[in-house]
Structure formats: structure tokens, C-alpha cells
Amino acid sequence: MGPWTAACMKMTTNPWAEEVLPRKFIELVGIALNAACTNLNPEGTRRHIRAPLEAGTTRDEVLTVLKMASVMSGPANKDTSVGRK
């Protein structure tokens, strides 16, 4: 494996290997990223729903993340004036 490939492999597996964040949290972020309307990846969303359940999340935690992904990433949330003076 060349140095570029090794660097890419380290970068893509880092969240799971470094254990900086709990695995449950990383998997919940994976759900949100895959379920966001800008991505809409059903296969990735399903995979990331199974993984946090195996890591100890509750059904309510998964549903909350799915709700957040659908509401916060949707077109209705594109008001860029929020928080501006």
C-alpha cells in the first residue's frame, strides 16, 4: 500500500479507531449525514441505524436524529438571516 492510500485509509477509519468520541455518537452522526436531504442515502442510513443500535443507542435516540436530519437539513431551513444583525 502506497503512502497516499495509507493516509486515506487512516483518515476514513479514524473516527472508529481513535476512540475520541463514543462509537454510539459517531454512528448517530452517520445516521444524520446519510439521512440529510442533501445526501438521501437510504442504504447508508439503514446501515447507520443498525450500527448505533448494536452500540447501545435507544430507538428514541435514533428517531430523534432522523427527525433532526429531516428538519434541519431541509429547504425550509435555508434562512441565512437567522442569527444576523
TrEMBL record:
<protein>
    <submittedName>
        <fullName>Alkylhydroperoxidase/carboxymuconolactone decarboxylase family protein YurZ</fullName>
    </submittedName>
</protein>
<dbReference type="InterPro" id="IPR003779">
    <property type="entry name" value="CMD-like"/>
</dbReference>
<dbReference type="InterPro" id="IPR029032">
    <property type="entry name" value="AhpD-like"/>
</dbReference>
<dbReference type="Pfam" id="PF02627">
    <property type="entry name" value="CMD"/>
</dbReference>
<feature type="domain" description="Carboxymuconolactone decarboxylase-like">
    <location>
        <begin position="6"/>
        <end position="74"/>
    </location>
</feature>
